[in-house]
UniProtKB/TrEMBL annotation:
GO terms for biological process: division septum assembly. Residues 22-195 form the EngB-type G domain. GO terms for cellular component: cytosol. It holds the Pfam family MMR_HSR1. InterPro entries: G_ENGB_dom, GTP-bd, GTP-bd_ribosome_bio_YsxC, P-loop_NTPase. Necessary for normal cell division and for the maintenance of normal septation. This is Probable GTP-binding protein EngB. The gene is engB. GO terms for molecular function: GTP binding; metal ion binding. It comes from Rubricella aquisinus.
Length: 195
C-alpha cells in the first residue's frame, strides 16, 4: 500500500521545526519497548525505517516520515522510562502538548499498548492528555502472538473498560502482531482511508 513510498523526513525538537501542515497526519505513540518500531516497519513494509531513537538519555525527537504522496507518519518517542529525569519529562510533555494542540492536520494518534498486559497507568496518563487535547486516539494492541490462553481476551477487555472513560478514544481497538503480521493490513487500511 505504501511500500517504497515511505521516507524519513526529519526529527523535530521544537514546534518551529515542524514541517508545514500540508498533509494528513497519523501519529504513533506508546511506552518504550511496546513494539512501536517493529509495527511501523511492518505497516510501511520497510525493514529499518523507524530509527532506534528511544534509548534513555537520547534526545527525544518527534520523527516525521512521508507516507505516499499525501500523508505524514509521525513517530513519537517512547514514554515511561522510570529513570528519565523530571526536567526532561516536563520538557517533553510541553512539546507533546504543543504538538497535539497545534497540529490541525493530525487525524489520529495510534496508541500502542502491549497485548500481554493491556493499558497501564502511564498509558492512561497519555490518554488523559489526548482527551485534553481533543485528539482522537485509537488503541493498537501489540505482540498479540505472545499472550497464552485467554490472556489476550482479558487484556482486550481491560483496555476496553479503560477506553470507556476517555472521550477522545476511538471505541474499536486493533489487535496486531508484527511478528506474525496480523492486524497489519487492517491498520494500513485505516491509515489509507483517512481523510
Ligand atoms: P519500541 O521500543 O516500542 O520501538 O519496540 P521495538 O519494536 O523495538 O520492540 C521491542 C521488543 O519487542 C523487541 O525485542 C521486538 O523484537 C519485540 N517485538 C516487537 N513486536 C513484536 C511482536 O509482534 N511479537 C513479539 N513476540 N515480539 C515483538
Amino acid at each position: 500500500l505504501f511500500a517504497g513510498a515511505c521516507d524519513f523526513l526529519k526529527g523535530v525538537v521544537a514546534m518551529d521545526g515542524m514541517p508545514p501542515d500540508d498533509r494528513i497526519e497519523v501519529c504513533f505513540a506508546g511506552r518504550s519497548n511496546v513494539g512501536k518500531s517493529s509495527l511501523i516497519n511492518a505497516v510501511t513494509g520497510r525493514k529499518a525505517l523507524a530509527r532506534a531513537s528511544n534509548t534513555p538519555g537520547r534526545t527525544q525527537e518527534i520523527n516525521f516520515f512521508t507516507l505516499g504522496e499525501d500523508r505524514y507518519l509521525v513517530d513519537l518517542p517512547g514514554y515511561g522510562f522510570a529513570e528519565a529525569p523530571k526536567a526532561k519529562v516536563d520538557q517533553w510533555q510541553q512539546l507533546l502538548k504543543a504538538y497535539l494542540a497545534g497540529r490541525a492536520t493530525l487525524r489520529r494518534v495510534f496508541l500502542l499498548i502491549d497485548g500481554r498486559h493491556g493499558a497501564k497507568k502511564v498509558d492512561e496518563e497519555i490518554m488523559s492528555l489526548l482527551d485534553a487535547s481533543a485528539v482522537t486516539f485509537q488503541v493498537v494492541l501489540t505482540k498479540a502472538d505472545k499472550p497464552r490462553g485467554d490472556d489476550l481476551e482479558k487484556a482486550i477487555e481491560r483496555t476496553r473498560t479503560v477506553l470507556r472513560q476517555h472521550p477522545a478514544a476511538f471505541p474499536e481497538l486493533i489487535v496486531t502482531s508484527s511478528e506474525k503480521k496480523t492486524g497489519i493490513e487492517t491498520l494500513r487500511a485505516v491509515i489509507a482511508g483517512m481523510e
